[in-house]
Amino acid sequence: MQPLAATLAALLLAHLLADFPLQTGWLIRNKGRKLSALLLHGAVHYALAWSCLVFFGHVRFLSVRNQAILIACLMIHLAVDWTKSTLIARSAVLDNTWTFLTDQTLHLTALTLAAFLITRSGIADLTAWISISALARNRLLETAIVYVSVVFGGGYLIRYLTTGVARHTRGEPESQLQNAGLYIGWIERALVVTAMVLQSPTLVGLILTGKSIARFPEFREARFAEYFLIGTLLSFSLSLLGGIVLLHLLYGSVSLR
Predict the structure, then answer these.
(1) Where does residue 30 rank: exposed (0-12), middle (13-18), buried (19+ CB within 10 A)?
(2) Which terminal residue of the chain has fewer beta carbons within 10 Å of its beta carbon, N or C?
(3) Gap between the Cα atoms of 4 and 235, Å rounded
(4) How far apart (Å, rounded) are the C-alpha atoms in residues 235 and 154?
(5) Mean pLDDT comparison of 10-14, 23-27, 202-206, 214-218, highest-scoring range
């Protein structure tokens, strides 16, 4: 692995460990209000970052330059965390998906900049690292087309095919999540296509079993049971077809050993 890639990967691992499994509820609640909580969060990041850098990235710990770069990166991290926590506490922003993604994007940007500075790399090094062959690009394109077609396009097709049946079936109770069926369908088809690519028919069976168990209490209504079976079988049929196509494109043959 190139020095830039190894350094960035080490910093990313440290960030993930410190920001998720090792960030306690107390830290999450108080790092925007108490300096001690913010500093403790920073100390965890610092310790993990250097542990990963020395072990995986072979970066010199005693280098004053490297220390300054990492400390500057941590200061940016803490400033982002404090700003986010303060804005949420004051109800200036919502603690939602977009806030989380913005927060993590800023952290990742700081980590990438730190990796560049520590390894003294340039854009050419990044280009060489992320460059992929023409064959890999073609495989990625084919995979993306199949997944998008099956997961999202398939949802529209199933909705149109089951329109007649849905008219005679009661809607989802108010206690259920809005559009839950739509999201379940997306995840279900993505998992089935992935199981096909991994050549794991057992996983396909587990997905179908899990979905059936979750909706089992509602099967007492005959119309819903029929609607569920029609929709599920259509969804699985499209997913299996997409998986077969993708297997052929990736491996040149179809096998589910």
Answers:
(1) middle
(2) C
(3) 43
(4) 7
(5) 10-14
